[in-house]
Design a protein that fits this description.
- This protein is α+β, with helices and mostly antiparallel strands and 144 residues long.
- It has a single domain, classed as Nonspecific Lipid-transfer Protein, Chain A.
- The chain contains 6 helices and 5 strands; from the N terminus they run ααββββααβαα.
- It is globular.
């Protein structure tokens, strides 16, 4: 499924909510997140993609595409998101080195790093199609 599509965010919600380890790690988290994937026209990614989700006590209660007001906004070029999902760039390192720009309380966001790391592991299991130069990246092949 296409990265950052509505189909993708609904699958993300399903995968996160069905994983006991993620729910345990995220217990007590009640926030909303907007993930902004900035275009890279020189790499074949022409449009900005925006996805978001709300979490209540560790459960993803809603997932969407498009702009909304949220507790946190995380933004980066499309390729940074691909690097995180591929495992070439850790999500915490991306935040602390500002390759992933954060709007919101960074210390609060980092306090949930266990759930963030588990989330990225789970997202790697989703069969995902990327755009442009990133189209050769394959995720979810060994999902199970």
């Amino acid at each position: 499924m296409r990265f950052a599509s509505m189909e993708y965010v609904k699958k993300m919600q399903e995968v996160l909510n069905s994983d006991e380890q993620h729910r345990r790690a995220a217990k007590g988290e009640t926030d909303s997140y907007l993930l902004v994937l900035d275009p890279e026209p020189d790499k074949g990614v022409a449009e900005r993609h925006i996805v978001g989700y709300s979490m209540v006590d560790g459960e993803v209660t809603e997932a969407w595409t498009g702009q909304r007001k949220t507790t946190f906004v995380l933004s980066a070029p499309y390729g940074v998101w691909v690097s995180i999902l591929e495992g070439r760039l850790g999500p915490i390192a991306a935040m602390t080195t500002r390759r992933l720009k954060i709007r919101g309380n960074l210390l609060k966001l980092l306090s949930g790093s266990d759930s963030t790391l588990r989330m990225v592991e789970l997202l790697r299991t989703i069969p995902t199609e990327f755009e442009g130069e990133y189209a050769s990246v394959k995720l979810g092949q060994e999902a199970g």
